[in-house]
Amino acid sequence: MTHAEWLLLLSPAGLLVSVVVHAMLARCSREGGLWRHLGISLSLGLGFMIAVLTFSAVTCGDVPTHLAVLGFDTISFLALGYVYAEWNNIPFTSTRLRVLRECRSAGGLDRRELVRIYDGPEVIRLRIDRYLAIGQLREREGRIFVRKGWVYWMVRFYAVARVVLFGKG
Q1: Averaged pLDDT score across all residues of the chain
Q2: Which of 63, 71, 138, 159 fits 147 for a cystine, CB–CB 3.0-4.6 Å?
Q3: Stretch (H or E) spanning 70
Q4: pLDDT for residue 62
C-alpha cells in the first residue's frame, strides 16, 4: 500500500478515537448529556484525523495528494459520525415511537396509564411534556392523543421497516 492509501484509513481511526472519548465522557461526566458528549468526541476524532494528515503533509511534502485525502477522509468521517450519532439516538427514538403507537392504538391514554406501561415515572413525564410542547401529542379531557397524522405514518413506516429488517416479533 502506498502512503496515501494508508491515510485513507484515518476516517475509521478518527471514529475510533471519537468512540473512546465518548465512552470516557459518558462514564466520567453525567453533565452535558448525549449530544454534548457526542459533539465533543466527534470533534476530537475529526481533529485527530486532521492533525495526522497535516503532520503527514508537512513531512512528505505532497500537499495536493494530502488535500485530496483530507477531503475524502472528512466526508467519510462525517458519514461515519452521523451513523454513530444516530445509533446512539435509537433508544430515544424507539421510546417515542412506542409512546405514540400506544396512544394511537388505545384511542388515547391518561398519564397514569403511560407511566404504568413504561415503569419510569420521571422519564415518561418528561417525554410526555416534551411531546405535548412540540405538538406531537395533545391532551384533551385528561387523555393524550396523537396530534398530527404524519406522526402516525412515521410510526407505521418504522414498524414496517422493523419487520422487514428484523422479522416479526
Answers
A1: 78
A2: 138
A3: helix 63-105
A4: 78
- Residue given cell 445509533 in the structure block: 87
Collapsing DSSP to helix, strand or coil, 24 comes out as: helix
pLDDT of res. 66: 79
Task: Give the position of cell 393524550.
Answer: 144
What percent of the chain stands above pLDDT 70?
83
Report the alpha-carbon distance of residue 35 to residue 37 in Å, rounded.
5
Which helix (H) or strand (E) covers residue 118, if one does? Answer: helix 111-118
Amino acid at 137: L
Between residues 91 and 63, the one the model is more confident about: 63
CB contact set of 6 (below 8 Å; sequence gap of 6+): none
C-alpha cell of 100? 405514540
Query: Which position has the grid cell 398530527?
Result: 148
- The pTM of the full predicted model, rounded to 2 decimals, is 0.51
Longest dimension (CA), the chain: 72
Rounded to whole angstroms, how far apart are CA atoms 55 and 7? Answer: 11
Distance CA 99, CA 102 (A): 5
Task: Please report, in angstroms and rounded to a whole number, the separation of the first and last CA atoms in the chain.
Answer: 46
Rounded distance, CA 104 to CA 137, Å?
Answer: 10
